Amino acid sequence: MVGKPVPPKPVPPKSVPTPDSAPKEAGTYAIASPPIIQGAASVAAGAALQAAGGTKSPGSQSTNSRRIEKIPGRLVSLDAFRGFIMMMLAATGFGIAGFAKIDDSSPVWQLHNHEYWNHVAWHFDHPKWQSAFDYYKVSFWDLIQPAFMFMVGVAMPFSYARRSQQDHSFLRLALHAMMRSVALVLIGVFLQSRGKDHTTWEFPNVLCQIGLGYFFAWCLLNFKPMVQGVALVAILVGYWGLFFFNPPPADYDYASVSASAKDGEVFEGRFAAWSKNANAAFFFDRWLLPKLRTVKEPDPEPAAGAAAVLRNSDWRPVALTLMQNAETKESGETATDAVQPPAPDSPAVLDPAADASATAASGTGSATTETPATDPTAETVQPLPPAGPGWIRRVFLQNDIPWTPHSGGYATLSFVPSIGTTLLGMLCGQLLLAGGYSHWKKLGILILAAGICLGLGILADMFVCPIVKRIWTPSWVLFSGGYVIGILALFYLLFDIAPLKFLAFPLVVVGMNSILTYLLGQTLGGWTRESFIGVHFAGLIEATFGPRALDPEWYAPITLATGTFVVFWLFLYWLHRQKIYLRL
Fold first, then answer.
1. How far from 160 is each of 31, 38, 426, 430, 439, CA to CA, in Å?
2. Which of 513, 519, 423 minimizes the C-alpha distance to 184?
3. What is the pLDDT of residue 324?
């Protein structure tokens, strides 16, 4: 018996590869829409980023459903890079700069080469003004702040993806970014005010600079890399124009603002607009920062000064005198003992004590002050409220010390070009987040981008504006960007490509609590060094390393700085074990 033929099994049609179905690297998951960055390469390297719109995903069953796709997991290199920067800050360069400052007469230089250590220590201090030297060498300490800001940008796409996965709305994400900006600025002002009698509303601190620009950079996160690149160019060109078209006058007094041509702080010719405390950013601070204090400006007119005298004097004798004078005029009597009005160039100051003395000397029963008949308000003087600042100034702007130019030349407006540094980090973060690229290809793009930025920075230094970190010139954005992208590429090679992740663990402990590490170093560094290690562990240190370890003429700067960081690291390690991390 012949059975019925078995129908062939239907063969499903092969799916056409799409960008969304491209193979992804293993790791955690993040939301792909809406809106989410689906991965990108750096603009400098010519890669493209496609930002997903708010449309409904194919095959989704409701507008609230989310399509999930794999993205690279937490990259060790990012935490290690952050940890490295925070380690150097918290350890104050491990005391190398302090060690090199030991006097030449110290016996320590009979064992060590002082000139060599001076060369090393140069990398642990900020140059006075210019930031690029022979063969475009740069101080490592000058790269700390741009690396900090750069890593903020690198982390943005990862943070956005994680929060989107948690079903945060766009409004909630925007509010979080705004609150983070405000928190960073306030923390920076708090640190800036340490040791002061009142809150000092100045913004050179790195946290203030990050906070002032953070939200503006975040607003560009969902745009394509081309748009982000255009924004970067617009920021740099616009900031260059602000300086170039606002040079200092020819007779500008540089000495009055602590600027010295001998120290390379004063430029000539087309670069004069980038001199220390003689540039557009300084002029802006000179206008803004005095307004954030309670210092009273001198009254420009005598009338205002007279009004201030009335406000601050006991007005009752004045009013009584005016009333008596008015009664005398109405009765037709002549005030023979009246005080003649003063000359116009010397306004009268009404002093009740002086009036009483004059009365006693003349023997009359009253003392009157006659005012010119042409003054219609002489008989209607009303008491004015006491002089003083409004409630906002009384509560928030209590600093009554006159504003003076920053001795280092730092300026508030530096946050504007520093947004460019954050954008460079954002582009690199999107590259590392992107699927469909191998580790080696990402590494190659990072190296290429570093070279392009470094080259553009050098060209800008030659023809556009000098490389000055303290006012964050556009050439510095590109020049420092090349260096920090190169450092990121090195960390990516060592800890995400090469099998050396275990070596990064000490740095990861610090990097995962970077803000807390920075605050520890800024607030408790001195106390830990002097009152904790110097008091409680001096015996142990000397017994282990010898008496020279804590001798100020020998190794004390290095020992105390290193010991301080060890204490911080042990505390951070305990927090890491408890999974406690400070987040803003």
1. 9, 11, 11, 11, 22
2. 519
3. 61
Distance, in Å, from the CA atom of 469 to the CA atom of 480, rounded to the nearest integer, reads 9
Minimum mean pLDDT among 284-298, 401-415, 537-551: which range?
A: 284-298
- pLDDT higher for 465 or 321? 465
Is 257 part of any domain? Answer: yes
Enclosing H/E stretch for 69? strand 68-70
Residues 279 and 161 in one domain: yes
339, 364, 380 — which closes off a domain? Answer: 380
Q: Buried b / exposed e across 364-391, counting CB within 10 Å, b at 16+?
A: eeebbbebeeeeeeeeeeeeeeeeeeee
For the chain, give the percent of residues with pLDDT over 90: 60
The pTM of the full predicted model, rounded to 2 decimals, is 0.73
Q: Is the peptide bond before 35 cis (omega within 30 degrees of 0)?
A: yes
Residue where the block lists tokens 């807390």:
516
Lowest-pLDDT range of 41-55, 443-457, 544-558: 41-55
Q: Are residues 423 and 531 in the same domain?
A: no
Per-position DSSP letters for 451-477, written without gaps between them: HHHHHHHHHHHHHT----TTTT-HHHH
Yes or no: say if 34 and 54 are a contact pair by the CB < 8 Å rule.
Answer: yes
273 and 129, same domain (yes or no): yes
C-alpha distances (whole Å) from 9 to each of 2, 6, 12, 14, 15 are 20, 9, 9, 15, 18
Q: What's the pLDDT score for residue 363?
A: 46
Looking at the structure of the chain, the number of domains it has is 3
Which pLDDT score is estimated for 146?
97
pLDDT at 164: 84
In a domain, 66, yes or no: no
pLDDT at 578: 95
Residues 425, 552, single domain; the answer is no
